[in-house]
Amino acid sequence: MSADPCSFSSGTRSATRHLNLVLHVDFSRRVLRGSVQLTLEALEDRFSALTLDTRALQIFSVTANGQAARFTMGPKHSFKGTPLDITLPFDLSRGQQVVVEVAYETSPEASALQWLSPEQTAGRKQPYLFSQCQAHHCRSMVPCQDTPSVKHTYYAQVSVAKDLVAVMSALRDGQEVDPQDNNRIVYRFRQPVPMPSYLIAIVVGALESREIGPRSRVWSEKEFVDKAAFEFSETEAMLQAAEALVGPYVWGQYDILVLPPSFPYGGMENPCLTYATPTLLAGDKSLSNVIAHEISHSWTGNLVTNQTWEHFWLNEGHTVYLERMIGRSMVSEQFRQFKALGGWKDLQDSVNTFGASSPLTQLVPSLQDVDPDDAFSSVPYEKGFALLYHLEELLGGPEVFVGFLRSYIQRFSYGSVTTDQWKTHLFTYFKDQVEVLNKVDWTAWMFAPGMPPVQPRYDTTLADACIALSQRWIKAGDQDLSGFQGSDLKTLSSHQLIEFLSLLLQEDALPLSHLKKMQEVYDLNAIMNSEIRFRWLRLCVRSRWEEAVPMALKMATEQGRMKFTRPLFRELYNDEKSRDEAVRVFLAHRAEMHPVTCSLVAKDLKLDASKTTGL
Ligand code: BES
Ligand code: ZN
């Protein structure tokens, strides 16, 4: 097993098999107080010392099989947190298990948690709490072996005020009045499938739910439930499409929870409970590929897991591949090709942002002393997808390659893998085509920075209209502007409109006269689809349209999905005229921002992170 550069607790000496969590959610102090029992298996003889990951936790006591155990906290690391070193009062031999119980409390600044005041919710009456543990934030919520190389089941009991509802990334296992306080309810959860710590998730709020399929409900504040039920009505069809590709869904329930707007990602594949940003609620199901993506993680990521965050592409590359295969089943092969082409452009954008020689553009980067949040980009997603698509083309097409994926999933289910193990399995599965595989420039694909060594050829049928229209705008002189009309967009789908704007974003800024004309004929300011609005406002800011600055700042702060918020802030920062305003608005909003978004935007705006976090 390779060591995890992001965890103090990895190594081969012991492994957690089960977690038993008892938590009291305290909104007045913004802390979780409680205990965790870790059932650990010794992997070596004479095992008596272990280290857990923690971050900003207060540890009250540690016991082992009920006996007091000595513990010390090591030195604090900037993003890894603080190691909790525990000495057991006895030795174990290999294969024996021990139950270590830690009593603790989280900090109000826990990086996994965002605590929202009632005013920050849609209902404005009840507070709200959500966790986001991926990649290395679980340790700020639970002392644990916070590494994707370790998998365990879990059980949890969560006490909340009786007007609130708790949900977790697990099956619901009943509820009762809290025996200690009859103004509270204890919610119980069980997760019988072994999974890594980063998939533990907890949400508390005034939540309601509605059934959307035989194994699916949507959860959110009541204000969004109906809209969400409509938007995600294809969920069961997507689950069935995925099962037809890669085999049975083993997690039982597949629910979707729509979070408040500050949720930093588009989606998060928490088992039994996918998280989704409200920016997916476009009203026309056009952003549902994010759900296809999170569904796909039920196999690639949650069953077969990257062993460390250096192998993150195994999670995301395979998931994007499956997401697009679901698109192929439900729409068409042309649609898959169109999305793949768009992905190549996203990869190009990430390579441009990091710089073509940045080590963070490697498919398999070194994360020694690198915070995984700083390394996050489209590279593992789209370079990963491009490699898998390239292999698909070389080895016989989508049906053949899905056979490999099925075999990879079967071979490594319930485990964690490295890129080497993936590659060995590839060579074993395609043992009759080893000459083909040997022609692949593996070193360049995996370890060279910049764009991949081979550019796949994608069908451009659906992209052609976007390319043609973007070229008309790019080539137009002022005298040509009268030739543009609202009807230019008539035959474009919202996917194609997004692609059209992405193509313009790849070019130098258009003249302001062009953007004003574009607004006049297409009225893009009126479009609320988040993917369209985000690109349109970036284009406007880039062309120095002053009226767009407040609109861009509004979008950057009214929702907190980092895919939108970070580039909008960066775009505003790059313009000297709007720079100070961007910094001012960020500083005014940072107290309500998600802790991870807050620290990354602070870095983007070149503000000293230590002054902006910790509030
Ligand atoms: N697991 C990721 C989100 C994530 C990655 C959170 C790393 C924290 C650290 C999720 O599956 C994801 O990839 N979401 C994308 C969806 C998109 C690729 C369709 C997103 O959030 O935009
Ligand atoms: Zn993903």
Concise account of the structure shown:
With 615 residues, the protein is α+β, with helices and mostly antiparallel strands. It has 20 helices and 22 strands.
Can you tell me the residue ranges where pLDDT is under 50 for at least 5 consecutive residues? Answer: 611-615
> What's the average pLDDT?
97
Using DSSP, what is the number of strands?
22
Shape summary: globular
Named once each, the bound ligands are: ligand BES, zinc ion
Helix coverage percent? 25-40%
Assembly of the depicted chains: single chain
CATH topology of the largest domain: Immunoglobulin-like
- How many whole angstroms does the radius of gyration measure? 25 Å
Strand order of the largest sheet: 5-4-8-2-1-11-14-13
How many strands, which pairing sense, and closed or not: the largest β-sheet? 8 strands, mixed
- Let me know the CATH homologous superfamily of the largest domain: tricorn interacting facor f3 domain
Supply the CATH architecture of the largest domain.
Answer: Sandwich
CATH first level of the largest domain: which class? Mainly Beta
Strand portion, in percent? 15-25%
Cα distance spanning the termini: 39 Å
What is the number of independent domains? 4
Classification by helices and strands:
alpha+beta
What does this structure look like?
The protein is of the alpha+beta class and 615 residues long. The chain is built from 20 helices and 22 strands. The strands form five sheets. The chain has an eight-stranded mixed β-sheet with strand order 5-4-8-2-1-11-14-13, with no helix packed on it. A five-stranded mixed β-sheet has the order 16-17-18-20-19, covered by helices on one side. A hairpin with an 8-residue loop joins strand 6 (70-73) and strand 7 (82-92). The protein is globular, with a radius of gyration of 25 Å. Mean pLDDT is 97; it is low at 611-615.
